[in-house]
Every structure is written in structure tokens, then in C-alpha cells.
């Protein structure tokens, strides 16, 4: 497993712990002793209770944060600065509001030194791929949430990333748009096959999209269990695969594992809230 992760685009976290300093000056451990492998071209989803450290895991893979202990390797190289070949898609769109759609999509190639005309031509191809060829001159605020998300995907994929890091990319969308975007993401991923690390709160979404689902424990997070999702590909419409009997079995099995962590995280936050109330009442 270790050898395969060394190939282009493989991600490997070994014994990774990340501590932060809180605003009060205390040390807090966000993730603890995390071991995680994403094989090149694999779609890996990470689920876990809120606040357990999923986004922290992504920022470590991106090289935006450094581990306090352990190592992060991408394509076999230890990550010690911003990782090359990575595109990030967040919950918010991260588009520049003062630039039209075409310019937003062309930004990556322009930053890398591609001539403006060539970058625009490439951006037009990507807008065509995500079904927005008629919106090149619109500004982000003139688009719907789903359309902005498509622009974000085009802006990420135009960079031909070997790694795509996605932090709850569709959570702000309504259910129907979310399903459409999931299908679009799968068909785009099947064309270019970057390694994907996809953080979500939605277990159904994780199983419908991924080759592998990683369940993290209540914070400080460590990896609790890893499930291989052996549903056939291409998956077809994510709305339909949810009714497949094997999908339901996988859901049941993974939810069993996740439920306990969600319960623990919830009771911890309730304890903190109760303690705060008690302190305030004194
Ligand atoms: N830069 C930082 N400084 C201090 N604490 C941080 C920092 N980044 C994250 N944390 C803390 O680390 C913990 C994990 O945060 P993280 O955002 O990784 O969790 P998450 O699982 O992605 O949460 P959610 O599911 O709610 O999005 C949280 O307690 C958070 O407050």
C-alpha cells in the first residue's frame, strides 16, 4: 500500500498529529495519530462528527498547515510547503466577485504564465464542459449557487490537478442541485482521475461517490475505520444508487461505526455548554 501511494497523486498521512494554540493560549489537539492512504486516482471520502478535525486533515494534505508530529507525503514527497498539483474546492465558492466567470476560470493558467488568449480558450472549453458556455461574461453574483459551484469546479479542474481536495463542496446547495453536482463531479472525475479527498457530513453522499470511506472519531480525530466501497463504476445517477441493496448494507454498516462518534461529540459539546451555563450562573 505504501509503495502505491508513492506514485503520482498518492496521499499518505503517517502517525499525524496536529495541535493548535487556542485564542486563550492553550494547546488543543485537532487530530491525533492519523494514518490514512489515498491511492493515486482514488476517490476517498472522510466522514466524522462536526469539529473532529476533517478540514484540518485536508489543510495538512494541501501543505497549508504542517503536522505537529508524523509525516504527510504526496506523490511520495514529504509535504513541507504548499503542495503542488493540488486544487481545493470549499463549501463557499472562493470566486473573485469582481471578475467575470471566464476570468475566474482562467485564473490558474494565467498565474502559471499561460498567455491570456490561450487561458481564455481553455476556460471556454471548461465552461462548455460544465454546461455554462453562455455565462462567460456573467459575474458570480449573477449566477445561482449551483452554477457558481460549477464555475468553482471548472476553475479547479482547469489546473489538471493530480489531487483534488474538497471540503463539503455541495453542502450549501439544495437537494436536487446537490444530486446534479454529484453526478457532474463523478463524470468529470472519471475523465481525469485525480486523487480525491472529499470531506462531507453526508454519509449517503460519501458512499455514493467514493471508492473508500474513512470514518473519523470524535475529536481529537483519529481514523476509526476504513470501508472499501465496492459498488460498480460508472455509478450512474447518485439518486438511484441509494436504493441499491448493497448500498443500503454499506450504509447500515458504516452508520453503526459513525453513530457512536456523533453521539460522543454531541455529549461533549453538551457538557461544555452545561459547564459554561453553570459558570455563568455562579
Ligand atoms: N487554525 C486553528 N487554530 C486553532 N484551532 C483550530 C484551527 N483550525 C482548526 N482548529 C480546531 O481544530 C478542531 C478541528 O477543526 P476542523 O475544522 O478540522 O474540524 P471539522 O471536522 O472539519 O469540523 P466541521 O465538521 O464542523 O466542519 C476544532 O476544534 C477547531 O476549533
TrEMBL record:
MF terms from GO for this chain are: ATP binding; ATP hydrolysis activity; glycosyltransferase activity
SMART domains assigned to the protein according to its UniProt record, in alphabetical order: AAA
The protein's matches in InterPro entries, at most eight in alphabetical order, are given as: AAA+_ATPase, ABC_transporter-like_ATP-bd, ABC_transporter-like_CS, ABC_transporter_ATP-bind, P-loop_NTPase
Outline the extent of the ABC transporter domain.
Answer: 11-243
Could you tell me which CDD domains the record lists for this protein?
ABC_NrtD_SsuB_transporters
Q: Which UniProt keywords apply?
A: ATP-binding, Glycosyltransferase, Nucleotide-binding, Transferase, Transport
Give the family this protein belongs to, as stated in its UniProt record: Belongs to the ABC transporter superfamily.
Name of the protein: Mannosyltransferase
Q: Which organism is it from?
A: Acidihalobacter ferrooxydans
Amino acid at each position: 500500500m505504501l509503495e502505491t501511494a508513492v506514485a503520482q497523486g498518492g496521499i499518505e498521512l503517517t502517525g499525524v498529529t496536529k495541535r493548535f494554540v487556542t485564542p486563550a493560549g492553550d494547546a488543543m489537539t485537532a487530530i491525533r495519530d492519523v494514518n490514512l492512504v489515498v491511492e493515486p486516482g482514488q476517490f476517498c471520502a472522510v466522514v466524522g462528527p462536526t469539529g473532529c478535525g476533517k478540514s484540518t486533515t485536508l489543510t495538512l494534505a494541501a501543505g497549508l498547515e504542517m503536522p505537529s508530529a508524523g509525516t504527510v507525503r504526496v506523490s511520495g514527497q514529504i509535504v513541507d510547503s504548499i503542495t503542488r498539483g493540488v486544487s481545493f474546492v470549499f463549501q463557499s465558492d472562493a470566486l473573485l466577485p469582481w471578475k467575470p466567470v471566464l476570468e475566474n476560470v482562467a485564473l490558474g493558467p494565467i498565474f502559471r504564465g499561460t498567455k491570456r488568449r490561450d487561458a481564455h480558450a481553455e476556460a471556454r472549453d471548461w465552461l462548455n464542459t460544465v454546461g455554462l458556455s453562455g455565462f462567460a461574461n456573467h459575474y458570480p453574483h449573477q449566477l445561482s449557487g449551483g452554477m457558481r459551484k460549477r464555475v468553482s469546479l471548472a476553475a479547479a479542474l482547469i489546473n489538471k490537478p493530480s489531487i483534488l481536495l474538497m471540503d463539503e463542496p455541495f453542502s450549501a446547495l439544495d437537494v436536487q442541485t446537490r444530486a446534479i453536482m454529484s453526478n457532474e463531479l463523478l463524470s468529470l472525475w472519471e475523465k481525469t482521475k485525480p486523487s480525491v479527498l472529499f470531506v462531507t457530513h453526508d454519509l449517503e453522499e460519501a458512499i455514493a461517490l467514493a471508492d473508500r470511506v474513512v470514518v473519523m472519531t470524535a475529536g481529537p480525530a483519529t481514523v476509526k475505520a476504513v470501508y472499501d466501497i465496492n459498488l460498480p463504476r460508472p455509478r450512474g445517477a447518485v439518486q438511484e444508487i441509494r436504493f441499491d441493496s448493497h448500498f443500503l448494507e454499506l450504509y447500515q454498516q458504516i452508520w453503526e461505526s459513525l453513530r457512536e462518534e456523533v453521539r460522543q461529540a454531541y455529549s461533549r459539546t453538551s457538557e461544555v455548554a452545561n459547564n459554561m451555563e453553570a459558570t455563568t450562573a455562579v
